[in-house]
Design goal:
By secondary structure, the protein is an all-alpha fold. It is 53% helix and 3% strand. The chain is built from eight helices and two strands. It has a two-stranded parallel sheet. The two termini are 22 Å apart.
């Protein structure tokens, strides 16, 4: 159910209405939403003490110059990520952190994580996918480095790569509901006195 902040945003015309199924979500918009989530996680984790963190293959010496949003948009465009792949990135974060409590998504790890997770997600979900050479070029790293990151990611997840349809849908719903500027199309009728939006900020527009 849409929260009060989302209700206000819809009433003032400032909300973006997302389709009830992630299958129908605009890939550019969904990429930005996922990127925003990773940005929030990084901003939070960068403020935490680093004493308990152990260096991993995902750590860089310094944060890359490209923003998380720009990097994700680049990956989505040139690696042809599908909506399910974007949601699987979030699932992979949870699985890795659950199995590896000292690992955190930070400004030093997020970029390598994203390109490795995107590579694994595409190979897991898509009938046709690119070569590691292509993914490495998109991510701005060497193929040797991507190969190592991919193996490390598989190990850290215990090779638990698949997600059910129900899991993907739940992550999509949670992602949308956590952003006060977004509302699910299927929840518009739960907002008293607000009619479904039509126009450029509506999924129907």
């Amino acid at each position: 159910m849409a929260g009060p902040t989302a209700a206000i945003a819809v009433a003032t015309g400032e909300a973006f209405v997302m389709p009830k199924s992630y299958f129908s979500a605009d890939i550019g918009k969904l990429t930005q939403i996922v990127a925003n989530m990773f940005t929030q996680v990084v901003q939070h984790n960068d403020r935490l003490p680093t004493g308990a963190q152990k260096p991993t293959r995902f750590h860089s010496r310094a944060p890359p110059n490209i923003s998380i949003s720009e990097y994700m948009l680049r990956i989505t465009k040139y690696a042809s990520l599908e909506p399910a792949c974007l949601l699987l990135l979030l699932i992979y974060v949870d699985r890795i952190c659950e199995r590896n409590p000292t690992f955190t998504i930070s400004s030093l790890t997020v970029h390598r994580f994203l390109i490795a997770a995107s590579t694994v997600a595409c190979k897991t979900l898509c009938d046709a996918y690119c070569t590691n050479s292509h993914y490495a070029k998109v991510g701005g790293i060497s193929m040797h480095e991507l190969n190592s990151l991919e193996v490390e990611m598989l190990r850290m997840m215990g090779w638990h790569l698949i997600a059910t349809q129900e899991q993907l849908e739940q992550y999509y719903f949670t992602l949308v509901r956590q952003d006060p500027r977004l509302v699910l199309e299927s929840e518009l009728d739960t907002i008293p006195g607000v009619a479904p939006l039509q126009g450029p900020n509506s999924a129907a527009g």
